[in-house]
Predict the structure.
Amino acid sequence: MNDMSGHHFASHSAPADVERRAPFPPDDNASRPIGVVLEIAGSNSQIALDLQRLSECTADADGAIALSGQVGSQVKIRTMDGWLLAAIRDQRQDRRADGGSVLAHIDFVGEGGEERLTGRIMSFQRGVTRYPMSGALVYPATSEDLRQIHASDAGTSVTVGTVYPTGDIRAALNVDALLGKHFALLGSTGTGKSTAAALILHRICEKAPQGHVVMIDPHGEYAAAFQDAGTIFDVGNLQMPYWLMNFEEHCEVLLNSTGQEWQEDADILAKCLLAARSRNRLAQVIGKITVDSPIPYLLSDLGAILQDEAGKLDKATSTAPYKRIKTKIEELKADPRYQFMFSGMLVGDTMAEFIAKIFRMPGEGRPISIIDVSGVPSDITSTVVAVLSRLVFDFAIWGRKESTRPILLVCEEAHRYVPSEQHADGAAVARVLSRIAKEGRKYGISLGLITQRPSDLAEGVLSQCGTIISMRLNNDRDQNFVKAAMPEGARGFLDSIPALRNRECIICGEGVTIPVRVTFDDLEPAKRPASADPSFTALWGEPVSDEGAVDRIVQRWRAQGK
């Protein structure tokens, strides 16, 4: 069978049982083989495809059949009791067949039974239980086959687009599988990544109006997209109490020293912070607390304790560390940019109320919280994200004895917060998000990572995502990083990642039946994020219409507000 010289698949008649089960017209491309299996070796299986048959298929009205044999397309292989579906990974000309055939490697993606009257795939399941034999015939997968394969359970799935190359087969994401094992949305800038994220989240919110979604929005893009479906929080209304920070997060905000000085400052801060928390009556009720316990305390108390400790004669260091910490506290209290977190009005015990409003419990038909951190001072942005992320994780851990509900945490610009080792700065947010990626699903936490630079993500984080949605990636490093994270069955699609058009993506993993190329639906303008590129020619072709805009911008600039 390996001698392909003069091999013409179109002339081969199908076995008698095939003809009996699949009474196709003789000119029907779906009923006639396009190739034959040469070698079965797991992920390195090989088939030969007849060029004449592929040429005949290109004129077929069925888009799926017309693309048969191309890299990334699906073919089906007959087995004793049904069909085996495979994706073509690569192809090359067979020099031994006088140019009449091409050789291709395939990746098996699943199997199904055969519908007796039509010969189509039915009851499709991912995975392979029985491999074909060498010599088995290869047929084109039809649009009706793909329709059966991509048929979704309306109760647990949301549709987000159409399956390429068809124009009518709906592409669905299984919400339970998508969120149950995390997901990542990847794509270079300008590919429609933000709009795709908004589309997916809108569909999930429509399916689950009583859900709990927290989205970290570093650029203020998504407020416009979720005005009606969610609640928007920014520095004007977030009101996140400073005392929710644990000790590590306090150190990030309050300590500026390095080396041995940092360790001295940290020891002093730990002692004084615990003393400040202990002054609250809640600490007396609880009994024994730690420096990480989310017990309210007064910044003035912390400053006074630092002052007292600095005046003690038996202290181990000079007064410089105490002064450094106290000075930083005074700066935070006085700077209006930090009032959303370090205001004197945030000393009350509002932890339950804060968690309820951020996690949408109850959601009141607005299941998503958009946390716009674009107005947060850059030096504490990662700390704010760390606190919010850790609250999600800690709430799930301490709620194991309650009938708590799962929470989805979506992190835009994820490479900022969980960077690779070469870009790591030891920030607390990287540790908490990495822990959520590794352990979160055990506690009902789903993580959605959105980034245009997957190669800058921490090693192992992307591999924790059960579903990968990849739009066009222009950078070679990013492409190779994604290839390493994608399952074997998606290899045939990988080479098409740099060639994807805007609003197109490759989806593989738990959220879909098989790896699939999808054209996203067009999202209504009112639901799109504010991330559209400006038209330079249009805007620069007309005079400035609002001369007062510069004055208003300067006023907001000086007031450090919006």
User: Anything to note?
Assistant: Residues 1-6, 8-26 have pLDDT under 50 and may be disordered.
